[in-house]
Amino acid sequence: MNPTIRPLSADERRMLAAARLVAVESAPYLAHALFSVRPLAAVGLATFAVDRSWRLYVDPATLAEWGPQVAGAVLVHEACHLIRDHAGRADSLPGPVDHDRWNLATDAAINDDLIRAGLPLPEWVVTPDSLGLPDAGIEESYYAAIAPQPPQTDVGCGSGAGDPRQPWEPSPGDAQMPGLDEGQVTITRRKVAHDIRDTVATGRGTVPAGMARWASKELAPATVPWRKVLAGMVRRAAALTAGRITYTYTRPGRRRLPRIVTPAMRAPRVTVAVVIDTSGSMTRADLDTALAEVSGVIKAVGGTVQVIVCDAHAERARTVRNARDVKLIGGGGTDMRVGIEAAEALNPAPNVIVVLTDGDTPWPSAPTRARLIAVLTRDRGMSRLPTWARGIHVPV
Ligand SMILES: [Zn+2]
């Protein structure tokens, strides 16, 4: 029988808030995720589940029965499914997906971490041990090691954990019960990854090994060697500017760190504007790649960059010091010309415009004043790029 989906009552919201408090206390690094999910009542579901748009389905009877301690631990479990992108990873499994097997594999990987972190999960939960698997494995290897499962009738952890979309889920764009869009999901996931990295780096609190491993993978460095690419751009620009040297590495004063800071270690002096494609065709993986490259550009210039997010419409440019401050708004059609035009109109005008896109866009017909670098997540977009622009393919 399908559960009935409705908003939570005030009483239910209070119960859930108590459980979330327990969840945040036991896994503070998941706070951004725990506060981003969109909770709904799922009467008759008999458990908790999540969907691909980060809606959290809570059976009010189960919530009352479990109490805040267990419900809090299960909230952490559900947040882990979302954070570790078990839905997206299910799509990448070879062959037709055995959903029950994937559910066991992901549950085992999550619970292994959480039990070691001391969370009071219900006793019946799946663990690597209960499946005869080694500890501390990753989801995909557990999946490969588990025998094919007979189809089950009970729900797993929902489409947000890699199950098929349930007939009772509101549609992704439901106006009454909205979920998160791809951009919000990407940003939340990266915020959590940063929080995990900070927790690990400062030693303030413990992070389960699996989560730490996930975060370092999530925050993988940029693929493009931006320092080198931008320095090359600046040199070329200098060669074109007759009689004026614009290529400078500022030399540190003699008294400051002699022989430690070499010119090569300093950032090329270049003003960069970044245009990020946030159209509907950009997947979470594309957006993740784009943000990793934004981080790389910021690091290379050693300061800030102007970021314009753009689908068929360009948002206002924002000065960004950290990729986590980028707001990925969009989801419509694609026209990077609009974003490039907005970048050219900036004051001061950028020397270099970096466009991060899957390549499925029209390009300006005439060369831009600034040097244009297009970072494409899809190889096929390269052929559409004008000859005067520089194209770099970064596979996702
Ligand atoms: Zn689960």
Description of the structure:
The protein folds into 2 domains: 4-182, no CATH class; 226-393, 3-Layer(aba) Sandwich (Rossmann fold). By secondary structure, it is α/β, with parallel strands linked by helices. The protein is 38% helix and 12% strand. The protein contains 11 helices and 10 strands. The relative contact order is 0.09. A 6-stranded mixed beta sheet has the order 7-6-5-8-9-10, sandwiched between helices. A 4-stranded mixed beta sheet has the order 1-2-4-3. The protein has helices spanning 10-26, 31-36, 60-83, 86-91, 99-116, 139-145, 182-202, 209-218, 226-240, 284-301, 336-344, and strands spanning 4-6, 38-43, 48-50, 55-58, 272-277, 305-310, 318-320, 352-357, 371-376, 390-393. The model is unreliable at 240-268 (pLDDT under 50). It binds zinc ion. Zinc ion binds at residues 77, 81, 107, 157, 161.
Give me some keywords for this one.
single chain; alpha/beta; 6-stranded mixed β-sheet; 11 helices; Rossmann fold; 38% helix; 2 domains; binds zinc ion; 396 residues; 4-stranded mixed β-sheet
